[in-house]
Amino acid sequence: MKKFLCVVYVCGISSFYYSQTAKKTIPCYDLTEVLKVEATPLYKPHLDASKSFGVKLLRDSKTVQKYIGNGKFHKIKKTGKGYRVQKLDYSRAYMVSKAKATLEKMGARFSKETKGHTFTVSSMTRTLEDQCRLRRVNANASVGISSHNYGNSFDISYIRFNDVLKYNPKMEIALEKVLKYYVNAGRIYYIKEKQQSCYHITVRNY
């Protein structure tokens, strides 16, 4: 009887170990399927801009760490002049240098235009694994490649200003004025994402 229990116990450990290992090693996305999704004409310029920075598609944390280690990605402060970064559950506060600089300049310009107000950054760099986790809680999240997957895109909420979640048409108009300035300067592309209540901004390799 003891021998039987021992065998069952060992088998149980074995099956538990391999099932857990499988969960850890099998990615939650199918890269082949991800690559099949074609970008819309509106979104294609964003992806083209993203691919011009010499950053390969970010699949997981390891690839992000690689670019942090070689100095390609830079840490984004939680607070800066004219902007705040909200708690990021599905993205990482790192971007390429031009994206970091552009965010900081946009924040400073917004602060100047509004006499000290702040906007909120709601998302930044995401891996394919981050994106997969996000889709589990947000059906509207991209199923294909996103410009967030290259470290040069970020989202700005248009319903959260000065750390207050409340629609503020005056602040939204001021924010869009800043965005249009940088579009006209050839620095960014942006899309208003109504389902996410944010502006999706992609920094160009100017």
Automatic annotation (TrEMBL):
Source species taxonomy: Bacteria, Pseudomonadati, Bacteroidota, Flavobacteriia, Flavobacteriales
Pfam families xrefs: DUF5715 (PF18979)
Originating organism: Chryseobacterium glaciei
Identification of the protein by name: Peptidase M15A C-terminal domain-containing protein
Superkingdom per UniProt: Bacteria
